[in-house]
Amino acid sequence: MDAVRIYGGNCLSGQTKIQGSKNASLPILAATLLIDGTCEITNCPDISDVYHMLRLLESLGCVVSREADAIRIDTKGVAECDMPADSVGVMRSSIMLLGALLARMGEVAMEYPGGCVIGRRPIDQHLYTLRRMGVEITEGPEGFCARAGRLHGAVHELPFVSVGVTENLVLAAVLAEGETVIHPAAREPEIQALCEFLVSAGGKIEGAGTDRLVIEGVKKLHPVRFRVPADRIVAGTWLAACLCAGGRVFLEDAPCGQMESVLACAENLGVNLRRLPEGLLVEGRACKGLKEALVTAVYPGFPTDLQSLFMAVIAFSGHGGRIEETVFENRFRIVQELQKMGADIRVEGNRATVRGGRKLHNTIVEAKELRGGAALVVAALAAEGTGIVTNRHFIDRGYEDIARSLRDLGAEIELT
Ligand code: UD1
User: Fold this and answer.
1) Distances from the Cα of 400 to the Cαs of 23, 147, 180, 295, 377, in angstroms?
2) Fold: same for 3-16+230-415 and 25-227
3) Which residue CA neighbors atom 13 of ligand 1 most closely?
């Protein structure tokens, strides 16, 4: 079965190590295409999105090998510039290969990328900004063809902050002729990791972590070994689990410095936290209401990827709260499933009002996307009875083994 079974009602106790970041490893794996030779990427999470990215790289001619959490990618044989439709369709990050492949091959044909159905997720800004760097793009109903000689730098004043567009432009600019400026650039830690990777390979990038990136194109990058940082969204997921179920857990390697908006929200909900160099110690459960609405925003604001997890938390906490989603328009698909469990949630446009203090009960619920699926598992930990979350494949996109990690934390849970 493609599901997770949860025996709810237990307090958590234990410790787990946070896996490497999905959203950092995907663009870094794409970036290896810019380097002739073999790169080694360590701490890469063993998740289905990484599997699909590696399949895409292999289909382009890379030789990929994996030993424990280290992935070696030899790009010497890259010859193809058409990507297999099934991998492109399943994952939004396949768009990341566009900037990198154009820089490497000068030509790309691909279908429109897939990913979680959390909004319209257009790629208009990806295409518009690449055109400004000398790329000719012909769009069709199913996909598009992009062609360029050596890309040239450009000054990009973007209409809004986009993680994906910033990453694609960094990948296109690092080997382009001349200087590229990206403003406002996304400041997410995953972009900082991508820039660190490229700089260690000989790229010239200034301003990583600020809203203005300046990239001076270089002729060549050299192979490197790079360690992917820990996943702040996975750490936030286990934090939400403790907030729902209560207990005392240690999240080894949790990147506390990247989680301040989330940690502050958790503290407002009444939990005790200790930010340590080795990770995060969490004690207690959500027992207070949110004084102000939880509003998602670009980094360093509250991440949209943890919004549904905190919706599950607030549905249990005594006083409830309000949520406003400002990044993706379709991030409330979990509401109907939480309602099946007895939650009291009202949605109006991009706002949700959650009445807390309900005793939720377990039943069969359906994951409809990655983080919403994880949120249903987390909610089930604290609900009464036995719950099943179906469509586990969505959760497997971003979590190595959600049952194993939560068992480390004392939950009774299994994959089925
Ligand atoms: C990335 C993350 C995702 C996270 C999101 C926001 C990866 C693999 N995914 O997604 O987990 O939730 O950042 O932090 O890293 N937009 C356009 N046109 C474009 C591009 C984007 O209108 O050409 C819109 C999107 O529909 C969305 C907003 O811009 O409303 C922000 O999206 P973006 O930051 O690009 O998210 P992703 O890179 O897709």
Assistant:
1) 14, 37, 36, 28, 14
2) yes
3) 163
pTM: 0.96
Q: Does 408 contact ligand 1 (Cβ within 6 A)?
A: no
Distances (CA, A) of 408 to 12, 139, 208, 277: 9, 48, 35, 21
Share of residues in the chain with pLDDT > 90 (%)? 81
Q: Ligand 1: which of 53, 162, 350 to mutate, most ligand atoms within 8 Å of CB?
A: 162
CATH H-level, domain 25-227: superfamily = Enolpyruvate transferase domain (3.65.10.10)
Is ligand 1 within 6 A of the CB of residue 126?
A: yes
Mean pLDDT of 73-101: 81
Q: Is 39 a catalytic residue?
A: no
List, as one string, the DSSP characters of 68-97.
Answer: TTEEEEE-TT----B--HHHHHH-GGGGHH
Question: Residue 345: what pLDDT?
Answer: 96
Cβ of 207 less than 6 Å from ligand 1: no
The predicted model gives 251-267 an average pLDDT of 98
Gap between the Cα atoms of 322 and 309, Å rounded: 14
Cα distance between residue 2 and residue 391, in whole Å: 5
Among the listed residues 219, 179, 172, 161, the one whose alpha carbon sits nearest the alpha carbon of residue 194 = 172
- Cβ distance 271 to 283 under 8 Å? yes
Domain 3-16+230-415 has CATH 3.65.10.10: yes
- Residue in 191, 327, 370, 395 to alter for ligand 1 test, most ligand atoms within 8 A of Cβ: 327
DSSP, res 152: B
Share of the chain above pLDDT 70, in %: 97
Please pick, among 116, 195, 242, 265, the residue that the annotation labels catalytic: 116
Asked if 94 contacts 87 with a C-beta cutoff of 8 angstroms, the reply is yes
Every domain of the chain and the residues it spans: 3-16+230-415, 25-227
Dist. CA 45–CA 18, nearest whole Å: 10
Find out whether 44 and 70 touch, Cβ atoms under 8 Å.
Answer: yes
Cβ of residue 307 lying under 6 Å from some atom of ligand 1: no
